[in-house]
């Protein structure tokens, strides 16, 4: 390692150490692997920064460094194995600081402590673990990623274990040539193989005849000593492999299949009880047994010959056996290897049928190996016939990917067809990822595993077929791949989905080939028109190659192969050509040539679609190449519309252009005419106008009409200045009201009483709360607008609103007339989707302006023209003195005159607006009528009679607005009248409750009834001639009995000058 690399590694360690220490200082627990007392160099080197940061970004309160480790091995360099459970899977670590000892010996202690195990190169076979997957991610070797096959062992350990098991099962019957071939396939040296043979001979003398179970491997630790090896280093390598197998198998079995009581006979359970005491009789503790196993394995972990003691090693091996035996008794799987490990071993052994030098050929001992595996090894590993066929198919397909030997595809296809139970398993609910593989029974694995393997073969074939133009030049290979895919889908019971799979493969491969051609042209041709032209020629050649070379091979399984190819190329070329076509700003020679090439290609593709009897793709619309120019024209028209609207509105005086009842203004007549002529000018070009161009122009027209409505609305402004302010709250005082009534009756204050009233009442009688109309500039402006000018504006907006339907029908009819008949037949009803929402903006703006004008007229009438009769005279002093009938007569007269001059559609809307304004005004009189209005519960009958008259007038025997609408408008007023019939004590009680409920809020919540609205209750009490009410208001609210001089200041203290709109009254 160079000095620079060493420096970078040291700086990386320092940064990681600082990050971890800071994390601890911030209160997050940092979990170290068992045996680590601090941030050792090997630990910092093994940490993945990405994984550490991912955990830090999570909401967890712990940072588990075991899960953040990755391999530091120069051989592996890949993702870590899955982290073991902290409490069960982390036996103590030794003092070694490297993942691998010299000469590639994998340190067993790193494996059992949860650190990732590096894997040698050469992986990538069946069930390649996460350590091996990344090494081969960029290679052409297909990968099989199944959770059950992630066994957590290094590749060289699996190969050594596979060779040892094979040697133990049939080493005496295997020929020397076969053993030599198998050693080469498993990448074992001859010396290592001889050592394994000596070990097997040694353990055979002790009764161990097969290594197909975990029990045999535990016994190996008891029997085998370093003298059986050429060097102590080789012994350490072998022992690490065996202890890795023991620990991984048992820790996983304990984690996933632990049984509270042993599976053995009662005698064995009694013996376990004698050894373990009373605790064993209730079921041995998994934690304590694993601790014993860890202790024994730690004692076995001797790294040098100088530290080795045979007696100590023997005692440790015995302790390991006892702990392993007890654990096996408490595990559902017993001594059996996990299913994933057995399947991995089967795959490695079956790869021995191929020559290591010529990867596409079999060895001459192929049949001998298969016979021995099926006769001797598979029974020991419990490999069924279907599993054998699935693995056999996989290794052949994998070997084809390596060697491209065509015969291997046929063998893989036949092996897949030999599987009998995959279809049923494929239809079952998948358990992978939800249940431990160890809990799956042998029968379930025998059925499910073949289906999973066949499914992975199907996915891999689909991936290759998705780029067959690039990877498959030989038609025979194409046929072989399709045959394997057909067999795989049939074996899984999904053969009906094969056409859909092939459709996706055809489309994906053609897109990839098209992209490659486009990339090549882009590198060599700079002029865009030439690119489009040459790309059309290349696409035509690609299509011809497809229909002549590939489609005949696919048509048996996908009859629509040619149609799919035509549709796909039509789509991808159109996606490239149309952006250029839209950007053409002149019909140059090169542009015309490109357009002709594109049209010729489209004709070729559409003819194929028609000949195949399939649905043709939507055409490109090459004739619409003038769309950019049309858009430019439309934008120019829209720009001119803005200037025309400004000139029309600038010269408008809002006088009638006709003497008809619903006559509008000159400006609306000219506006409608200009809009119509602008739209007709587009269709007068007699072109099949693209919908986008039409929509662009209609949106411009829509905006122009919105502008017209907005100008009309903004010119008149708002009428709210006419709404009188709320007077300051006062308590009703009888002597003041009587004096005021007498003064109003006689026209002057009686002389004899003036001296008595000078100090108390003179100010109250002369201090009026209702300001005179016209006192502000805004009031004078609103009252200066005549009803005739307002009616002309209102009629104009209604005429504009009525014209929108005719404009929309004209646009649709003219556009439909200009479309080609073929396009109309091809596009169907969906071609009219662009029509939705046309002129909706103008409709909304016109409706908003119409409602604004009707409200303006209503407020001007009620709060302006009838201001005195309502706010000065209605119910003044007593209800019976001045009833609502007089007001209704004036409203009916004025409203009738206005309605006689408006459009036929407007009287109901005007009536509704006036009704809303009138109800709001009457409600103001009842609640905010000043200091001289008296209302008693006995007045409610008269008030309800007045309200009945109001409803009847606006209903007008069915000629006005509906009774339901009238009732809805009058409901707030009715609620107030209902509250007015309550006695004073109940009003005070309700007010106190309402104040308690709304304490801390400025207003009661929406939907609060008037009987619980503190604002309503307080104002009703202010108009009661009741001593209890006056006393309560004076004591709790400090409300005076007269309006002080300087009403503005008092009003400010009482809540400010409130101008309440009719809309807010209606909402209440």
Structure description:
With 1068 residues, the protein is mainly alpha-helical. The protein contains 46 helices and 4 strands. A two-stranded parallel sheet has the order 1-2. Helix 22 crosses helix 24 (528-554) and helix 40 runs antiparallel to helix 41 (963-980). The chain starts with a helix and ends with a helix. Mean pLDDT is 79; it is low at 71-138, 265-269, 273-284, 428-435, 749-757 and 1048-1068.
Short description:
By secondary structure, the chain is mostly helical.
Q: How does the overall form come out from the CA principal axes?
A: elongated
Residue runs with pLDDT of under 50 for 5 or more positions: 71-138, 265-269, 273-284, 428-435, 749-757, 1048-1068
Main sheet?
2 strands, parallel
Give the terminus-to-terminus CA distance. Answer: 83 Å
- In the sheet with the most strands, the strands line up as 1-2
Percentage of residues assigned to helices: 55-70%
| Mean pLDDT value | 79
Q: Could you tell me the strand content as a percent range?
A: under 5%
* Number of DSSP E strands: 4
Question: What attributes characterize this protein structure?
Answer:
1068 residues, mainly alpha, two-stranded parallel ribbon, 46 helices, 4 strands, 1% strand, disordered C terminus
Reconstruct the topology from this structure:
Blueprint: H1 3-25, E1 29-31, H2 41-46, H3 49-57, E2 62-64, E3 100-101, E4 105-106, H4 108-112, H5 130-133, H6 155-170, H7 176-186, H8 190-204, H9 214-223, H10 232-257, H11 266-276, H12 278-281, H13 286-300, H14 310-329, H15 339-350, H16 366-381, H17 385-403, H18 406-417, H19 422-427, H20 442-465, H21 468-471, H22 475-491, H23 498-524, H24 528-554, H25 561-583, H26 589-612, H27 627-650, H28 666-683, H29 691-716, H30 734-746, H31 751-757, H32 762-766, H33 777-784, H34 787-818, H35 821-827, H36 840-865, H37 867-873, H38 884-899, H39 907-927, H40 940-955, H41 963-980, H42 984-997, H43 1014-1022, H44 1027-1037, H45 1047-1053, H46 1062-1067
Parallel strand pairs: 1-2
Antiparallel strand pairs: 3-4
Helix pairs in contact: 6-8, 6-15, 6-16, 9-10, 9-14, 10-13, 13-14, 15-16, 15-17, 17-18, 17-20, 18-22, 20-22, 22-24, 23-24, 23-25, 24-25, 24-26, 25-26, 27-28, 27-29, 28-29, 28-34, 29-34, 29-36, 34-36, 36-39, 38-40, 39-41, 40-41, 42-43
């Amino acid at each position: 390692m160079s000095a620079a690399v060493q420096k970078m590694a040291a700086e990386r360690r320092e940064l990681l150490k600082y990050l971890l220490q800071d994390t601890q200082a911030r209160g997050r627990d940092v979990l170290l692997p068992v045996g680590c007392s601090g941030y050792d160099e090997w630990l910092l080197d093994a940490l993945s920064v990405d994984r550490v940061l991912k955990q830090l970004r999570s909401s967890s309160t712990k940072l588990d460094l075991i899960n953040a480790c990755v391999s530091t091995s120069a051989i592996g360099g890949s993702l870590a194995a899955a982290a073991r459970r902290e409490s069960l899977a982390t036996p103590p670590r030794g003092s070694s600081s490297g993942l691998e000892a010299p000469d590639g010996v994998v340190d067993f202690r790193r494996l059992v402590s949860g650190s990732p195990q590096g894997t040698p190169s050469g992986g990538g076979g069946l069930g390649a673990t996460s350590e091996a997957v990344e090494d081969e991610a960029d290679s052409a070797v297909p990968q099989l990623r199944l959770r059950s096959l992630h066994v957590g062992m290094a590749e060289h350990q699996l190969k050594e274990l596979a060779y040892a098991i094979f040697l133990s099962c049939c080493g005496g019957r295997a020929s020397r040539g076969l053993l030599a071939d198998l050693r080469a396939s498993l990448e074992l040296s001859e010396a290592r193989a001889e050592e394994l043979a000596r070990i097997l001979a040694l353990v055979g003398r002790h009764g161990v005849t097969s290594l197909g179970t975990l029990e045999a491997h535990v016994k190996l630790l008891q029997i085998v000593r370093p003298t059986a090896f050429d060097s102590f280093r080789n012994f350490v390598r072998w022992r690490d492999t065996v202890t890795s197998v023991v620990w991984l198998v048992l820790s996983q079995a304990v984690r996933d299949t632990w049984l509270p009581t042993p599976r053995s006979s009662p005698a064995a359970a009694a013996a376990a009880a004698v050894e373990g005491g009373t605790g064993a009789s209730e079921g041995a503790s998994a934690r304590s047994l694993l601790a014993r196993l860890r202790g024994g394995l730690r004692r076995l972990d001797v790294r040098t010959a100088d530290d080795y003691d045979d007696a100590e090693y023997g005692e440790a091996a015995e302790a390991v056996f006892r702990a392993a035996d007890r654990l096996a008794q408490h595990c559902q799987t017993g001594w059996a290897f996990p299913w994933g490990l057995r399947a991995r071993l089967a795959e490695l052994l079956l790869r021995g049928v191929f020559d290591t030098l010529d990867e596409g050929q079999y060895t001459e001992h192929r049949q001998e190996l298969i016979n021995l595996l099926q006769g001797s090894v598979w029974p020991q590993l419990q490999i069924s016939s279907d599993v054998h066929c699935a693995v056999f198919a996989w290794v052949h397909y994998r070997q084809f990917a390596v060697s491209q030997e065509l015969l291997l595809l046929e063998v893989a296809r036949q092996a897949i067809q030999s599987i009998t139970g995959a279809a049923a398993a494929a239809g079952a609910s998948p358990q992978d990822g939800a249940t431990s593989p160890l809990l799956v029974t042998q029968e379930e694995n025998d059925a499910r595993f073949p289906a999973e393997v066949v499914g992975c073969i199907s996915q891999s074939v689909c991936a290759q077929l998705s780029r067959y133009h690039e990877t498959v030049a030989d038609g025979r290979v194409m046929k072989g791949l399709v045959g394997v895919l057909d067999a795989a889908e049939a074996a899984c019971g999904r053969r009906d989905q094969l056409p859909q799979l092939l459709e996706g493969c055809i489309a994906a491969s053609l897109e990839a080939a098209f992209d490659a051609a486009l990339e090549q042209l882009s590198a060599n041709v700079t002029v865009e028109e030439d690119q489009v032209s040459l790309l059309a020629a290349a696409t035509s050649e690609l299509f011809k190659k497809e229909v002549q070379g590939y489609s005949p091979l696919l048509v048996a399984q996908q009859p629509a192969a040619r149609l799919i190819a035509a549709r796909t190329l039509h789509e991808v070329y159109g996606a490239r050509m149309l952006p250029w076509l839209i950007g053409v700003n002149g019909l140059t020679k090169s542009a015309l040539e490109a357009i002709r090439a594109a049209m010729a290609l489209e004709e070729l593709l559409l003819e194929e679609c028609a000949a195949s009897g399939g649905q043709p793709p939507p055409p490109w619309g090459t004739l619409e190449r003038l769309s950019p120019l049309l858009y430019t024209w439309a934008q120019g028209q829209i720009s001119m519309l803005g200037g025309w609207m400004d000139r029309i509105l600038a010269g408008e005086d809002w006088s009638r252009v006709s003497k008809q009842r619903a006559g509008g203004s000159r400006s609306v007549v000219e506006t409608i005419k200009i809009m119509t002529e602008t739209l007709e000018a587009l269709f007068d070009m007699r072109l099949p106008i693209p919908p986008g161009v039409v929509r662009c122009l209609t949106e411009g027209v829509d905006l122009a009409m919105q502008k017209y409505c907005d100008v009309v609305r903004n010119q008149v402004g708002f009428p709210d200045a006419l709404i009188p302010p709320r007077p300051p709250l006062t308590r009703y005082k009888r002597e003041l009201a009587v004096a005021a009534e007498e003064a109003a009756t006689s026209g002057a204050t009686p002389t004899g009483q003036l001296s008595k009233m000078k100090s108390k009442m003179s100010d109250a009688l002369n201090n009026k709360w209702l300001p005179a109309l016209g006192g502000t500039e805004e009031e004078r402006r609103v009252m200066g607008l005549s009803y005739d000018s307002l009616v002309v504006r209102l009629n104009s907006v209604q005429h504009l609103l009525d014209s929108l339907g005719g404009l929309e029908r004209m646009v649709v009819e003219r556009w439909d007339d200009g479309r080609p008949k073929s396009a109309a037949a091809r596009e169907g009803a969906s071609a009219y989707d662009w029509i939705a929402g046309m002129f909706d903006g103008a409709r909304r703006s016109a409706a908003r302006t119409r409602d604004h004008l009707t409200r303006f007229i209503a407020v001007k009438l009620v709060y302006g023209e009838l201001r005195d009769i309502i706010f000065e005279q209605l119910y003044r002093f007593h209800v019976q003195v001045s009833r609502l009938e007089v007001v209704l007569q004036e409203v009916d007269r004025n409203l009738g005159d206005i309605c006689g001059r408006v459009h036929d559609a407007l009287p109901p809307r005007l009536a509704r607006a006036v009704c809303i304004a009138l109800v709001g005004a009457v409600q103001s009189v009842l609640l905010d009528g000043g200091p001289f209005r008296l209302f008693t519960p006995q007045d409610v009958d008269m008030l309800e009679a007045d309200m009945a008259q109001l409803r009847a007038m606006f209903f007008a025997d069915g000629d006005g607005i509906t009774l339901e609408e009238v009732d809805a408008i009058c409901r707030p007023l009715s609620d107030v009248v209902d509250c007015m019939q309550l006695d004073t004590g109940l009003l005070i009680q309700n007010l106190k409750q309402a104040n308690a409920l709304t304490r801390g809020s400025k207003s009661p919540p929406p939907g609060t009834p008037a009987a619980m609205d503190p604002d309503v209750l307080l104002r009703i009490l202010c108009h009661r001639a009741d001593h209890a009410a006056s006393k309560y208001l004076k004591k709790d609210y400090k409300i005076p009995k007269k309006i002080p001089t300087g009403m503005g200041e008092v009003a400010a203290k009482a809540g400010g000058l409130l101008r309440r709109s009719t809309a807010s009254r209606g909402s209440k």
